[in-house]
Each structure stands twice: as C-alpha cells, then as structure tokens.
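Researcher: Let's do a round of design. I'm pasting the structure tokens now; please hold your answer until I've finished.
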C-alpha cells in the first residue's frame, strides 16, 4: 500500500507559507539572526524567530503561540490538498517537543505556585501544561474530531507522528491523516537549560555558530515553526483527483538506549536506522539532521563514510532554519518533497566544511532531477528517526 502526500503548509522564520519556504530553500536564505543579551550572562545568541504577527480572531487569543502556529500551517496544508474534512475518517497527528513552556501563563504560574498565590493561577494553566491540549485545539479549529494523537519524542516528534499516521492509514482505521509538528520554545528557561549543556552558539557570529558540518560551530540555533502535511492512500488520492506531491515510502525509528544523562558519541542506532531505511535503495541525497552540534554532526559524518563511502550528497536545511525542535523532521520532509517536485537539492549555507572535507556536502543549490530522498533525524532523549520519500509513480 502506497502512502502519498497531497498537501503541505509551513510557517517558520521569514516564511509565511509554502511558496516562501520554497523560495528560501532554492535561494539559500538564512532565516536566523544574532540577538544581543539573550545568553545567561548577557551573551549573544543565534535564534530563528517568527517576527510577523499571527492572524487571529478573539477566540484564539487565549491559546498559546505553539497552537496558533499549528493552526496556521494546518489550514494551509488542507487548502493545498483541496481537502474537505467533513464526512471523512480523518486522523490528526502532531509532534510536539516543548509545548507551551515559553508562555507567561506557564512561567508566571511556577512563581505564583512557589509563593502560594493560588488566586493568581489562571484557569487556563492546566491546558498550557498538557501537550495534547495543543493538538486538540488545532483539531477543533480545523474541524476534526476523530483519532487525535500527540507524539513527543524530542526533535523526532513530527517524523514519528508521520510514522504513526502511516500505520493508521494502512490499517484502514482512517482515510486521511493530517500530520504536523509545532513548537515555539524560545525563552530564558530553554536558553539556560541548553546553555548548561553547552550546545547553543553563545557569542558566535552567523559565520561561526549554528552551522552544520563545521567544526567551529559550538551549537544549534533554537527556532520556532510549524509544518503540516496531508497523507492519503494513493488510490484514494487518485480517485478524488488530488495532486500528489510525493510518496512516503518508509520511516524507521529507534532509541540510542543509553543512560539519559550520557552522550552517544558513536551513533550506532542512527546508523542502523539509516541503513535499514535505505536498504536496496539509492537516494539522490540525504536531507541531514546536522545542526551545528559537533557530536551529532560527527555521527552524520560516520554514516556518510560507512554507508556511502562519502559519495552520497548531504545537505542540512538547519543552516537556514535552525532547529525548531519537534517540527524539525516534518520541515525536512516538506523540503524534500519540494526538492522532488521542483528538481533541486537545497544547500547547506554558511559552512566552510572545515572538519568535514571528505563529505559530499552540497553548499550551493544544485538543480537536477530528484526522485528519492533519505532523511535523518535525532531527538533529545535519544530517539532516532530516518525517513525515505520518493517521487510518486504514475
């Protein structure tokens, strides 16, 4: 059974819709900025922020930003797919990593709790603490009330949401899957937490920091975004005359299986997942999870050497968009679908390839026919997820 994508939507830094996403990918536009005084000791930090105001009516104002981003991307995806959700068995699957942690409702309530100021706790707090309330609110706004799932496995969340949606589609429990990721996590709490583990690029310029495949990079750029795709069984999509963007062939996920406060420097499980998903297949390139953390990027280098002898083209869109946590995987999927549809490999911008010279890293947009793409993704907490997508045959 073939599972195909019939629509997609995106909102991200410097990206209000799918057309802007495509333009930025083709032109290699950096959507990140250096912000003064954002570090724990007033250092600079590199971030990917959505600066445009979100359109919202009165009833949406009480919802957290992460929910509003998800609604925006989901509406574009449904419109792109020309989908009518009524009278269909629709499943909604969202990957979310850090939820509404950045919101004042969440942050202030922690202070009020420690001060025993019960009256100051807003009635909305319980929903702001509950990740699934985000997905449920998105479903209400787009008109779905069937199977509704929230997957939270760190940065692999949205890719594993696709994996789960495929199982439901193949089982026949649903006819359409609306699958997305949404995260808006940037705040002092997340900045301080990741600064403690030394994986964010404090006091680094855009030439040095948050650069995939570059040994001078001291970490990744936190960013916010939402991406959504519509999945259907191929025969159903053909029967309703839908425009098919590409086929999701397979997704393989696993976990490093190490002590949670340790670091996996070998990447055996990532290699295993990529080897399994590419078995007997030859992708045109790897859409990599490399993000500027040296341990992670060195694991990508190891996979490149041991699985492809450094001959396989690699690229990472995180040089443009940073790391929007649970949205990362689905952004990579959408970027790969666009590259298949428009015949190009997006570049890894800003990198000098220092320390990664042996790899076949695409640093300038390469226009060529693209039929198949493999995707690598790693999440905080040890999950790995690798996907394989291809152009849909007639």
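Researcher: That's everything. Go ahead.
Model: Designed sequence:
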């Amino acid at each position: 059974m073939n599972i195909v994508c019939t629509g997609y939507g995106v909102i991200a830094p410097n990206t209000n819709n799918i057309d802007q996403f495509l333009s930025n990918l083709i032109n290699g536009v950096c959507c990140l900025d250096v912000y003064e005084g954002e570090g724990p000791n007033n250092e600079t930090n590199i971030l990917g922020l959505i600066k445009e105001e979100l359109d919202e009516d009165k009833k949406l104002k009480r919802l957290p930003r992460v929910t509003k981003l998800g609604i925006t991307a989901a509406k574009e995806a449904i419109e792109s797919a020309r989908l009518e959700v009524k009278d269909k068995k629709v499943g909604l699957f969202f990957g979310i990593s850090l939820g509404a942690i950045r919101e004042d409702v969440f942050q202030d309530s922690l202070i009020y709790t420690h001060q025993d100021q019960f009256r100051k706790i807003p009635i909305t707090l319980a929903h702001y603490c509950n990740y699934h309330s985000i997905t449920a609110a998105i479903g209400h706004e787009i008109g779905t009330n069937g199977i509704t799932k929230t997957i939270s496995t760190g940065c692999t969340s949205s890719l594993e949401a696709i994996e789960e949606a495929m199982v439901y589609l193949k089982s026949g429990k649903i006819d359409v899957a609306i699958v997305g990721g949404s995260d808006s996590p940037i705040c002092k709490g997340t900045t301080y937490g990741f600064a403690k583990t030394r994986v964010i690029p404090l006091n680094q310029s855009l030439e040095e920091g948050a650069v995939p495949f570059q040994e001078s990079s001291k970490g990744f750029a936190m960013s916010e975004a939402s991406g959504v795709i519509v999945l259907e069984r191929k025969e159903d999509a053909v029967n309703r005359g839908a425009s098919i963007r590409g086929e999701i062939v397979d997704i393989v996920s696993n976990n490093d299986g190490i002590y949670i406060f340790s670091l996996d420097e070998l990447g055996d499980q990532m290699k295993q997942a990529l080897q399994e998903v590419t078995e007997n297949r030859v992708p045109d390139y790897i859409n990599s999870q490399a993000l500027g953390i040296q341990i992670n990027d060195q694991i990508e280098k190891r996979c490149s050497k041991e699985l492809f002898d450094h001959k396989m083209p690699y690229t990472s869109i995180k040089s443009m968009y940073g790391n929007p946590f649970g949205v990362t995987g689905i952004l990579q999927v959408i970027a790969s679908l666009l590259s298949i549809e428009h015949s190009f490999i997006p570049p890894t911008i800003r990198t000098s390839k220092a320390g990664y010279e042996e790899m076949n890293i695409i640093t300038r947009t390469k226009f060529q026919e693209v039929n198949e793409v493999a995707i690598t993704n790693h999440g905080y907490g040890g999950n790995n997820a690798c996907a394989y997508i291809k152009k849909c045959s007639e």
